[in-house]
Amino acid sequence: MRSGNIKEIHNFEDLFGTRNCIATMELPTQLDALIENMPVNSKYTVEYFVYKHTLFPFLAAFIPEERANKIIKTMRNGEGAVSYMSLGLVTSSVTLNRYFRFCPECFKEDIERFGEPYWHRSHQITGVFVCAKHKIPLYNSTELIRGGNRQRFIGASHANCIVEKEISFPSDLMEKMLWLAEDAEILLNNQIGFKEHDWFKNQFRVKLIEKGYARMNNYIHQKKLKEDFIEFYDYEYLKLVQSSLPDKSGGWLSDMVRKNDRTTYAIRYLLLTRFLEIPVVELFNTKLGFNDDNESNIDAYQELWDQRLIELS
């Protein structure tokens, strides 16, 4: 960060009017104070920073609007830990990235276009390992996201973005990684409306019935669903994106299709969405399915279920 200050802590005083805050990558706070300290007639707003420069659009994509608004309120002037707790990230089995990540090609392009590189927020999503634009692996920088001095701002540079050894993924694994990177970018770069938990439960239910994994009476063929899901993605990839499924019954996939009222990391919603062949935008904007009161629809889905049972057996 460029400023005329000798000490980095003075940057916080200039930007936020206090020393009592820390730099946070995913869900920063004290944004109201930041706007207040902007130059007169500045066009920047809290909403602009929230939706264009944080991971909020991705992390909060699958939570109800009321809870999302509470997180935005916390980002305005609250304690940062509250936002992470609201999203279940504090108690989650998912471990967030330790280091800032970068794409070597984006790094070069940034210098050519802007004169210097910067951290791309899409590269910092836990579970995303490739650049959706250049379709190449991401690399860890030497800068920690958490830990060390949390009262300073560190930009990307030649000193901290070094490719010591080139990374290469098998083509089948690369394909899955690109799916996730592309779908995550859709969430990040489009202000898709918030939905209640039941919306996603019903959307998934329609596709589960179409594919023969569920019946109209809400019975779900959990064992076959899990087997096919693992076969589709492979054990190693699910482990890599911290979404492994237990050998015994239960697990996040079972909870998502059956209850869907628990806070689950957004990556897992995208995994299920891709498996069920639902375009991400359609998942949010198009009500899928059938009319439960229409007997012809019910009969059609019953026939489909019976046929799929034969195929799955």
UniProtKB/TrEMBL annotation:
Superkingdom to which the source organism belongs: Bacteria
InterPro entries: TniQ (IPR009492), TnsD_C (IPR032750)
Domain (Transposon Tn7 transposition protein TnsD C-terminal) ranges: 180-288
Domain TniQ, residue spans: 6-138
Annotated protein name in UniProt: Uncharacterized protein
Biological source species: Tepidanaerobacter acetatoxydans (strain DSM 21804 / JCM 16047 / Re1)
